[in-house]
Amino acid sequence: MNLSNRINEMKFSPIRKLSPYAQAARKKGLKVLGLNIGQPDIETPPQFMETIKKYDEKVLKYSESRGEAVLLESFIRYYKDYGIEFTEENLIITNGGSEALQFALFSLLNPDEEVLIPEPFYTNYSSFTDIVGCKVRAITTYGDDGFHLPKMETMESLITEKTRAILISSPSNPTGTIYTKEEIRMLADLCLKYDLYLISDEVYREFVYDGLEVHSPMDIPEIEDRVVLIDSISKRYSACGARIGLVASRNKAIIQAMMKLAQSRLCAPTLEQVAAAALYETPKSYFEAVKKEYQERRDILFEGISKIPQVKVKKPTGAFYMMIELPIDNAEDFCMWILEKFSYKNTTIMMAPAEGFYLTKGLGVKEVRLSYCINQEDLSLAVEILKLAIEEYNKK
Amino acid sequence: MNLSNRINEMKFSPIRKLSPYAQAARKKGLKVLGLNIGQPDIETPPQFMETIKKYDEKVLKYSESRGEAVLLESFIRYYKDYGIEFTEENLIITNGGSEALQFALFSLLNPDEEVLIPEPFYTNYSSFTDIVGCKVRAITTYGDDGFHLPKMETMESLITEKTRAILISSPSNPTGTIYTKEEIRMLADLCLKYDLYLISDEVYREFVYDGLEVHSPMDIPEIEDRVVLIDSISKRYSACGARIGLVASRNKAIIQAMMKLAQSRLCAPTLEQVAAAALYETPKSYFEAVKKEYQERRDILFEGISKIPQVKVKKPTGAFYMMIELPIDNAEDFCMWILEKFSYKNTTIMMAPAEGFYLTKGLGVKEVRLSYCINQEDLSLAVEILKLAIEEYNKK
Predict the structure, then answer these.
(1) For the domain with range A47-281, which CATH number is right: 3.30.565.10, 3.40.640.10, 3.30.1360.20, 3.40.50.720?
(2) Sheet of A197-201: strands edge to edge?
């Protein structure tokens, strides 16, 4: 009675795998500050629940496989504000960005084919390629370069006969890096030269600091039939639990193909779609306040971390993550040790060991990903705990 | 710029593929009676929306990957009422029964391995095996036998070295057949003799008529580590749009393996889970009224259909589907023709051609699946339209 080889080879989420240690810490009466997960603490805009409360259909019916018309319309207007023109035929509503990624990878890649992904990358990208059965080739990026892409020649050296697509996230989870206009242009050139698709995960589009701008490959007309956009309302509107995502492409053959997958799972949740549609009306002031808050948190975290001796960090410019290198041999052991053995002011911290964000063996062993989805006071305390914990740990 | 071979080979849903013809008919001002889809018209129990309206968390957070504790608890109590004992560790909440099936198939079968499925079967079973990449071998069943299983020897003749699992639905979509205690026992014996898993799709558990009983493989202790149960609230509580399903097993290794898939897509929708949990409180009288209504509809449909000359039908005993054989060469052409060319009392009907429910080429060409999810008056009119349409079509 064996299970499938594929499920045996899949890994548990490295972001969630320390949860039992955090639970044990909480049982001991400690407060655990969660720097491990991208669950925003910002309030969901009230339109969401207000719309749900007004819903008065007697039967909670299946939605259309492509998505509720009102939500498709709302996304079309949202993109229009960014200068990106879509019609209904360019879009499919999905169960979160997660399903959007699976649809894209399944539709574009055969099992023996390869997708290039800059590492470190969101750990579930590996889960999705495992599920779909295609291979990942890592484009290694480095903290010293702010996790920006290597130059064209290095990128080209990674492309093989089996390469079919490049998958990027900008602003990036886990690095917070925003690719420059030139980097996006380079990716477009690679796609044209080597006949590749570009899957662009833009779920953190609004989380960009220091007056920087996000550049989408959707803005480059020459590759418009090669780009597949991944989106989600989870982070933008602090609505992770709604599970509403989207996959978009101007290449109608891709969307039509993905509709087979959409039909097979029938639809995304109906009520959540109706409520998500109302989020387009969220006033600009909401995003301004959210952005200001996150930028302040980033600054607190960055400045605090910078002062810890021997910790390496560069200031990220987007999303709400920061990759830092610790003066510690094994960051995973250290993360477990903190949860099990260390506390200060009756509080401990949970971080995501970064090894799981790298495909290349040996990379990221000393790194952790920190998210700044907790309030400023807790963030300052977390930095203090980290500093003290490093001192204590290295005394051992 | 090719798409993947797998997506190219996948088919569009045969249940939804006539939708454009129905839309065209509606545009002409006709009323279209939908006998094609299992979307119940029964009201969702009011507890669902009442619970949602009381939800007052400020942030719509991710749920646990396994599911909201309150919903797991509610399912545990629901099964207990059926004499099936589960703990939280036996369950994972999924995005509908669809995701539950994908989790099970992916975890149990390698790409070159086979799952036995009685045909005709729910068309999306093929989609899920296509996505997972495993093979289906059909156990052909026949209308003349009420779509019951063949005898043990026939079943055994279909088992190869590559067979890893049997997938059944009882009460069955699309046939409405409920397997007898002896049939379930035979499946258990096969699983023990040939070291197979049994995936049991029981989403129609409450839809059983004529005082019959549903037998679950979960009731057979010798195979308890071989059974994976698929469930959903969609049909039971007329809540298809909630997308809340469940996969259950007493084999903890299977559940632990599937948790990797659950973590990769983060969670099922939070609000819908909280609301679904409240549905356990649905009074018995709700189900009694629903059952009475569906049994009456089945009788109206069955009696009406039986009177149409040359149409072959046996009375089904569960779910809300009926497979009928028409005196027509090609049922799909006929279904399109009705939508395009035929109406009576300004009304036409949409049916699901049954060829797509069969894996074996040539089977089901003259058959259609009818669902009885519309009210009794419309159902009587639908039968009349079908009778007249057959006469008219065969005059051509």
Answers:
(1) 3.40.640.10
(2) A91-95, A244-249, A227-232, A197-201, A163-169, A114-119, A135-140
Count other Cβ atoms within 10 Å, centred on residue A250. 21
Closest C-alpha among A106, A156, A114, A160 to residue A137: A114
Q: Which of A52, A113, A195 sits opposite B52 (nearest CB)?
A: A52
Residue with tokens 């991710």: B62
| Min distance B327 CA to chain A CA atoms (Å) | 30
List of chain B residues whose C-beta atoms are within 8 Å of the C-beta of residue A265: 95-96, 98-99, 102, 124
* Diameter over CA atoms, chain A: 65
Q: pLDDT, tens digit, for every residue of A260-275?
A: 999 999 999 999 999 9
Q: CB distance A197–B1 less than 8 Å? A: yes
From chain B, pick out residues whose CB is under 8 angstroms from the CB of A62: 37, 39, 240-241
Question: Rounded distance, CA B301 to CA B304, Å?
Answer: 5
For helices A376-395 and A284-306, what crossing angle results, to 10°?
Answer: 20
Q: What percent of chain A stands above pLDDT 90? A: 95
* A322 sits in which H/E element: strand A321-325
pLDDT digits (tens, 9 = 90+) for A35-59: 998 889 999 999 999 999 999 999 9
Based on DSSP, count helices (H) and strands (E) in chain A, helices before strands.
13, 12
Chain A interface mutation, best of B60, B130, B162, B192, highest count of A Cβ atoms under 10 Å: B60
pLDDT score of B12: 83
Instruction: Say what the alpha-carbon torsion angle A162, A167, A173, A179 is, to the nearest 10 degrees.
Output: 120
Model pLDDT, residue B266: 93
Nearest CA in chain B to A259: B12
- Residues of chain A in contact with residue B258, where contact means CB-CB under 8 angstroms, are 7
Distances (CA, A) of A73 to A104, A105, A135, A142: 22, 25, 35, 40
Taking an 8 Å cut-off on Cβ atoms, the answer to whether B260 and A10 are in contact is: yes
Contact A271 B53 (CB under 8 A): no
- Chunked into runs of 10 residues, chain A (396 residues) has average pLDDT values of 92 81 95 92 95 95 95 98 96 98 98 96 95 96 97 98 98 97 98 98 96 95 97 96 97 96 95 97 93 97 97 97 97 96 98 95 97 96 98 92
The count of CB pairs under 8 A between chains A and B is 213
Tokens representing A329 are: 């041999």
Check CB contact under 8 Å for B8 and A242. Answer: no
Domain segments of chain A: what residues?
5-43+284-395, 47-281
CATH number, domain B5-43+286-395, options 3.40.80.10, 3.90.1150.10, 3.60.15.10, 3.40.190.10: 3.90.1150.10
Choose from B5, B260, B373 for mutation: most chain A CBs within 10 A: B260
Extract the tokens encoding B217.
Answer: 């493989």
Considering only CA atoms, which of B105, B223, B138, B118 is closest in space to residue B179?
Answer: B118
Mean residue pLDDT of chain B comes to 96
Would you state the pLDDT for residue B19? 85
Predicted confidence band of residue B13 (pLDDT cuts 50, 70, 90): confident
**Among candidate residues B352, B311, B22, B381, the one with its CA nearest the CA of residue B175:** B352
Half-sphere exposure (Cβ direction) of B273: Cα atoms closer than 13 Å: 28
Distances (CA, A) of B371 to A122, B19, B25, B301: 44, 16, 20, 9
pLDDT of residue A60: 96
Nearest to A98 by CA among A64, A66, A70, A129: A129
